[in-house]
Amino acid sequence: MKDIHKEIAKVFLKLGTIGFGGPAAHLAMMEAEIVEKRKWISKQELLDFISASNFIPGPNSTEVAIHIGYKKGGMLGLILAGTCFILPAALIVTLIAWSYKTYGTLPAVQTILYGIKPVIVAVIIQALWSLGKTALKSKILCALCALAIILSLIEINEILILVTVGVVALVVAHPPRRINFMGAFALLSPQPLITAGTWAAATGVANSLTLTNIFLFFLKVGSVLFGSGYVLVAFLRSDLVERWHWLTESQLLDAVAVGQLTPGPVFTTATFIGYLLADTSGAILATLGIFLPAFVFVALTAPILPKLRQSEKAHYFLDGLNVASLAIMAIATVFLAKGAIIDRFSIALFLVSTILLIKFKINSAWLVVSGGLLGYLWNL
């Protein structure tokens, strides 16, 4: 058992170090490294983990990593997978935050990212193709995936899309004899999202800048935040900039940029902010606070996932969630591609990377490193 725990730590340290591109890219790398290469879990299990992570607050790709750790190595595996996935990014962001606080500027990383981004898009597309063959196993599920894409394009809330498609998949498979219209309306109506300010008022988190309050603030955010890193920006701005004046608008934007540009979870934006507020202690407490709920939520939900898959009705609901998750991931990839594939060099890098991944099964880690090096050399 010790060997598998060492392997879990090794794999997720690697993914946390090379995982540029946000959640969609992280999931694509997990599919390549854990499903295809190591065969620790099946594609179906990965899809179930992705769907489950969409239904609890916190960073989705980190929660999928935690699910995989639990599946392969129990509670110790759960802790190791999540910690090792987060740690490289947290250390890199802390170093950047130190440089920023000392010299007032961000290190120049744009030339490296210029080459990495097209490769990341290719990695995601390869994963979408692979996972799609498992998830889209009937005409009904293909139609539901198309429905989820349309709902995503018109900017319907992600949780609402997941619930809607899951319920439709269940109803099509098992049409109810009677329909409770009021219950259906309550289920499918937009979920009221708790804002950070409301939660703070309810729990009495003070606005004085102390280490305790830094931890409590980010614990609060990690406990209630659904959605992407862009939703995180709104939560942080409402309290840290507007209400409590702990940060300036410019500092918040720089923190978000660092979270987007570094590998690993986007939520390490909290690490950067924590360092700005209270140096290393602030960085540690902010990181611990925002990620701790993810470990707790996964530990509570992971044991019941296999039972849901065995239930006939829950099986159809999960299939609907899986195709909806795939659709949301596809739309995110389109927007990522718009910012990554911008000229002839990036187009060529994207096409070559896609061919190498799909046809020759090249390890994505080597492609990411090569892309960064080529981007740097091209800009010289």
Could you walk me through the main structural features you see in this protein, from its secondary elements to its overall organization?
This protein is an all-alpha fold and 380 residues long. Helix content is 79%, strand content 0%. It is built from 17 helices and no strands. The protein has helices at residues 2-18, 23-37, 43-54, 60-103, 110-135, 139-153, 158-173, 181-188, 196-203, 211-224, 229-243, 249-261, 269-301, 305-310, 312-340, 344-358, 364-379. α3 crosses α4 and α10 packs across α13. The longest helix has 44 residues, at 60-103. The chain is globular, with a radius of gyration of 21 Å. Mean pLDDT is 84; it is low at 181-204.
Rg over C-alpha atoms, rounded to the nearest angstrom: 21 Å
Shape: globular
Count of helical stretches: 17
Order of helices and strands: HHHHHHHHHHHHHHHHH
Based on helices, strands and strand pairing, what is the structural class?
A: mainly alpha
**Model regions low in confidence, pLDDT < 50 over at least 5 residues:** 181-204
Q: What is the overall pLDDT average? A: 84
Strand content: under 5%
* Span between termini: 48 Å
Largest sheet: none
Helix content: over 70%
Structure summary, number of beta strands: 0
